Amino acid sequence: MRGLQFSKNRVSVFLSVMLVYTLWLAFFVGFRSDHYGIVAGLFLMFFGSEKTHKIICGIFCFILFAAMYDSLRVLPGHSLMPVHIEDLYNLEKSWFGISTDSGRLTPNEFFAQKLTPVLDFITGISYLSWMPFPIGIGAWLALKNPQHLMFYSFCFLISNFIGISLYYIFPAAPPWYVYEYGFEFIPDAPGSASFLERFDKIVGFPIFQGIYGKSSNVFGAIPSMHAAYPLITSFYLFKYKYRKLAIISVLLMLGTWFGAVYSMQHYIIDVILGIMCAILAILICEKILYKTIFKNFLYRLASYIA
After folding, report:
1. For the CA atoms of 114, 118, 120, 123, what is the dihedral angle to 10 degrees?
2. In sequence order, what are the residues at sequence separation of 6 or more whose Cβ sits closer than 8 angstroms to the Cβ of residue 54?
3. Burial letters 50-71, b for 16+ CB under 10 A, else e
4. Is the dihedral of CA 217, 218, 223, 224 positive or negative?
5. For the segment 41-66, what is each residue's pLDDT rounded down to a tens digit?
6. What pLDDT was estimated at residue 216?
7. Which of 154, 272, 282, 295 makes the best surface tag, with the fewest CB within 10 Å?
8. Helices 268-283 and 86-96 sit at what angle, rounded to 10 degrees?
């Protein structure tokens, strides 16, 4: 690696951030086995090859989001505001309910009677992409075009500030919670993969069970960030004319939106609010922040990565 990328300043900043992050985990969040792998991976990428160094510097917005989301354990939203369970369920049924011979059902309940292995697999693949695909695009842009990466990843970060704020303003139970526990509020209820476990059975590995079993935000159904992330990714891929990747992103986006409802992870209301969250983040960035001096700041960050 050359000069600037191992300057004292850059290494000092990285080590300082890692020290603060490690202490935060140890004293507040609680160290888990997966944290050791995360910390080791960050060190290996930062001090590895030139490519991995650029990638780790380029996707810091995604890393910051992951740390923020994990930290929701410290002060969960339901500890500050009442959790919406029955009222949200009834609103979903009122707005989007489907009339059947057995009565009016929410779309989640309707799909629960129509589960098929084909849809289980398609929605599982789409749902798995919700974070790996945006982060993968970020890593690719870190090498291909850091300027594009900065504008894309910062919008991603803004959407998370909006989403996490709503987690605290309006904590809400997902549909699987009603399916498993009814309308009773159980503050320490564990996360659940619900019908996504059907995908685990197809592939013979507990992928979703492992992910959702460690969820730090059971009562964070609103907004659905599963709906927000692929929309932001698709927007910037189209904006920067990466058309083939944009088409893939749109297909994954549609599969994720459908899968969120099909798998009982979200109501349609949650998905719509997630879409609105993404649109708001894009408008804030494109119409306000990126038309100010902040644009030059992102250009400097891009030069720092490159």
Report:
1. -110
2. 5, 142, 143, 146, 305, 306
3. eebbbbbbbbbbbbbbeeebbe
4. positive
5. 889 888 888 888 888 888 888 888 88
6. 67
7. 295
8. 90
How far, in Å, CA of 76 to CA of 79, rounded? 6
Whole-number Å distance between alpha carbons of 48 and 44 = 5
Place of tokens 């894309």: 152
The span from the CA of 273 to the CA of 162, in Å, is 11
**Under a CB-based contact definition with an 8 Å cutoff, are residues 190 and 218 in contact?**
yes
Tokens at 2, concatenated: 């050359």
Number of H helices, E strands in the chain: 16, 2
Contact 53, 46 (CB under 8 A): yes
Contacts with 160 (C-beta within 8 Å, 6 or more apart), sequence order: 65, 68, 69, 225
Q: How far apart are CA 109 and CA 238, in angstroms?
A: 35
Contact 200, 206 (CB under 8 A): yes
96 in Cβ contact with 231 (< 8 Å):
no
Secondary-structure percent of the chain, ordered helix, strand, coil, rounded to 5: 75, 5, 25
Pick the closest to residue 300 from 63, 43, 57 (CA basis): 57
List the chain domain ranges.
77-305
Q: CA 44, 48, 50, 53: dihedral to nearest 10 degrees?
A: 20
pLDDT of residue 4: 45
Please state, in angstroms and rounded to a whole number, the distance separating the CA atoms of residues 249 and 145.
18
Burial class (CB in 10 A: 0-12, 13-18, 19+), 169: exposed
- pTM of structure: 0.89
Indicate the SS3 state at residue 130. Answer: coil
At position 19, the amino acid (one-letter code) is: L
What sign results for the dihedral spanned by CA atoms 211, 215, 219, 222?
Answer: negative
- Listed residue (262, 285, 296) closest to 113, CA to CA: 262
